[in-house]
């Protein structure tokens, strides 16, 4: 008996049975590696399916992974639930919540604690908000800022949200009460002796603080907690 197997041309485009090929001789236990059927083709397509690239984990995904891990869920179940790979879940759990990046460039002349002490001094009194940067080292000897320059002080305050701005100009009051008071003062001054005029010290608060003829600056909170300014006033 002729046991030769006859294989049709499976590469023939005109053949209608190219995907449904049966052996010429079928016997129990026979295996024909070159004969494909629709069933075997479906099995191969499932076992050797296309592999897709895993998506990148977002901040929301990482938060969900940590929250589910805290409940005791395994990495495999988390990956199936969030449609991520198990390696991605393991990597997220081994990393810190907020990874700290090293800062490049020069270090600040004033540390964070020293800058916070400077901010507390600015808020301790309303008059401190009008101090010049160049005068702060001499007016605050307990802060030990003698060797700190003006730019370093400005930078430290700016990191905490404080900057110097032009203060609102104080306008001259034109109310009837103030007009009457000024007029009475002038009439009283006409009765003074010349020695009294020479020894009189001028103490008008408008001229002492700059007034309308000059610009004055004040420290204001540009970014941060607005309640700090209220507590400092």
Shape: elongated
The domain count comes to: 4
How much strand?
under 5%
Structural class: mainly alpha
| Low-pLDDT regions | 15-52, 226-233
Residues in helix, %: 40-55%
Strand order of the largest sheet: 1-2
Q: What is the overall number of helices? A: 11
Mean pLDDT: 71
Q: How many strands, what sense, and barrel or not for the largest sheet?
A: 2 strands, antiparallel
Query: Which value, in Å, is the CA radius of gyration?
Result: 43 Å
| Number of E strands | 2
- Helices and strands, in order, run as HHHHHHHEHHHEH
**Measured distance between first and last alpha carbons:** 112 Å
InterPro entries: WH-like_DNA-bd_sf
Protein name: Transposase Tc1-like domain-containing protein
Key words describing this protein structure:
233 residues; mainly alpha; 4 domains; 2 strands; 41% helix; disordered C terminus
